[in-house]
Hints:
By secondary structure, the chain is α+β, with helices and mostly antiparallel strands.
Amino acid sequence: MNTDTPEPVIQTPSRKRWLVILPLICLLAVGAYLFFIKTPTKADKTKNSTPTPPPTAVVTLPARKSDISVYLTGIGSVTPLNTVTVKSRVDGQLMEVLFREGQTVSKGQLLARIDPRPYQVLLTQAEGQMARDQALLKNARIDLQRYRDLWAQNSIPRQQMDTQEALVRQYEAAVKSDQGQIDSAKLQLTYSRITAPGSGRAGLRLVDSGNIVHASDTNGLVVITQLQPITVIFTIPEDSLPLVMRRIKAGEKLTVDAYDREQKQKLASGTLLTVDNQIDPTTGTVKLKALFPNQHNELFPNQFVNARLLVEVKRDSITVPTAAIQSGPKGKFLYLVKSDKTVELRPVEVGESQSGDSAITKGLAIGEPVVVDGAERLREGSKVEVKEPGQTRGRTSKQGAP
């Protein structure tokens, strides 16, 4: 029985050589991979390095001393002192209209005429009746004198003389009544001439010539509104009332400025006239009335305005532009530029504001430079470069957004 035995593996010299070289080639390949992949290139070094940011361009202004005016603002409307609806006081046909719409009329100026002929007839009748009664009165007085002479001679009884005296008094009353009729007719004639009851601006004509007008008409002929002077009624919070009343009791004349709806254009200046006698409980405000000369008709009736009441002027206040004041979680603060061209965050307390400036009541000294433009790009200790106004925007566009 033959048993197969495995032949022994014979390793030749070339096979032994490859067993040694092959691991060395693998080690060299791994080393080369690690060297070229992990070693950063010059571009990578440039990309990963963080360059030092350039100084931020800002505009600064020193804190200065100035006066700050304290105003109370309120919403109001223009209200004329007098508004009159001109009506006819007699009935008749409107013969003539003598005013133009929008015309400024003066007190007593003739505006329209109503047909006066019916009232002229009444006047003539009253004068004729008076002439008749005067003639009767004259004759009764003559007879009374005769009766007195006859009674003195005991020629007539006393009763006849008394009756004549009563007749004289009756005619005297009739003459007096006739005089009243004449005066009434003359008054009706006067009312047929419609005049302006006051000075002001005439509105649109409500009745044309030729129409029959009555004293009971509700619309009237025209509405006349006084424009000079004119008032503004506005409201302020009830908490501000004590400050206003102190100024009024001291005899001061408080100035009131009227601004347009957007509070950009000043329309007119006047003085405070009076304060209402009660507070509105639904709104917590009180009404004030200011008087304006309105020489050039800057204000118009029922116009909406924003009123600003000057109640106090704070002298020698430390002020900075309002744009320099920043808001943060801890309140208001400013950025101050130090001598080493870095900024310091300075907490401050802000007071009143006026015309783009705000008063700083605490935290700032006069002359300290504060950042008024470019503060949105700053942090505590940021490097800055002080520029003239108008240059920061150009520098920001070149540098790009931070």
